[in-house]
Amino acid sequence: MTGKRDRWAELTGGRAGEQYARRFARLAESGHDIHGEAAFCDALLEPAARVLDAGCGTGRVAIRLAELGHRCTGVDVDSSMLAVARREAPAQEWLLGDLARTDSLGLEPDFDLVLAAGNVIPLLAAGTEADVIGQLSALLRPGGLLVTGMGLDAAHLPLTEAPFGLADFDEWCVRAGLALRRRYATWSGDPYVPGCGYAVSVHVGPAREGGVA
């Protein structure tokens, strides 16, 4: 999320970390697979890849990717979420920061994959979406991947309506030098069908500075 008054902060007040963690703990205890995002990303990566979990929340995805052998950094603006992540995986790198200002975090542009799952993009502050995508794209190594998952309607969002359309998102990605590789309807890889309400998108960054993916 971003440090401005983002939609996530409006929903939670920045104090949802423990509640969020308990929710996924209950899902895991009831037999649900809570690692779909991590499995999806792992299938795209070479061993020991460098991954940035943007809007990492309590660290659920980044922790699982680290267990699978990848080198993961998590960034979030919600300190209550990061408190859980740091408690669960103190050896991992967790950064408190604004996704619209990742250039201020001292991160090297060497990530094989940048992930923005859990409706991170729709829950940004209005008007910052294009800037955030540009910042995340700039952190990719040449040919690296931006993977996003987001609801496209009220049924798939904690909002009364979607704040933007998929065409807007794709335009922001193009402006950031990203090219759409594949799009799915779920983290399980179900085919995307227009109107299905959710999109998991895999964009690839430029192959070289100033080049075309």
Automatic annotation (TrEMBL):
TM regions (residue ranges): none
EC number, as in UniProt: 2.1.-.-
One GO biological process term: methylation
Superkingdom assignment: Bacteria
Keyword flag Disulfide bond: no
GO molecular function terms attached to this record: methyltransferase activity
Keyword annotations of the record: Methyltransferase, S-adenosyl-L-methionine, Transferase
Stretches assigned to the Methyltransferase domain: 51-144
Protein name, per record: Class I SAM-dependent methyltransferase
Organism: Streptomyces durocortorensis
